[in-house]
Amino acid sequence: xxxxxxxxxxxSRFGRGLTGPVRRGNPLRPGPVxxxxxxxxAFDVTAVLLGLLALAPLFIGVALIIRFSSAGPVFYGHNxxxxxxxxxxxxxxxxxxxxGDEVLARHLRDDDAxxxxxxxxxxxxxxxxxxxxxxVIRKLSxxxxxxxVNVLVGDMSLVGPRPVVTEELNRYGMSRRHYxxxxxxxxxxxxxxxxxDIDYGRRVALDRSYVSRWTLAQDVSIIARTFPAVARSRxxx
Length: 237
Hints:
mainly alpha, two-stranded parallel sheet, 10 helices
């Protein structure tokens, strides 16, 4: 299935670039306890268990639609950087064609504007890899619901920075130490503030602010703001 295409030597605009994988012993490595500690974790587990029960019919329906509408698996897993630099498998409902790597490579090779957009944001407004059903579930953020399982097993949190690949984390510059202090989130300040309509520098600043000022009340507020943000579909593509 599709992997996010990394373009080597992309410059960092948000601090001194840091290249290579996240490693143990890095001077920016945080301590062993993520931001929020056991309070945040207990909240996550309780909320996810209730959410999985309520959303079970939706899970089944979306899985069946994907299974019978296009060739390929129902779920798509991709490696992302988690708390303390640990690599984990992040799950989504599949929204792209199975040969997405080749499709994207050809598109970026032939379209200079698309290549510039990808270098700037790691996303494309007109992404040729996305299936018709995929466009719908991405617009409504339904494709990310399997990440509730990632939250349940402890790879992610309900609220936090969006999970990124190692190459993308390099773009955080010195701010990546904030990213590594917490579990990535299913939702977060970026998602409720405009998502892809926000430039990358602002996204990094929002992640840094969230980690530096974490409170449980802020998590509850962001979750409450997520529902109207999804309904408006602002910045989703």
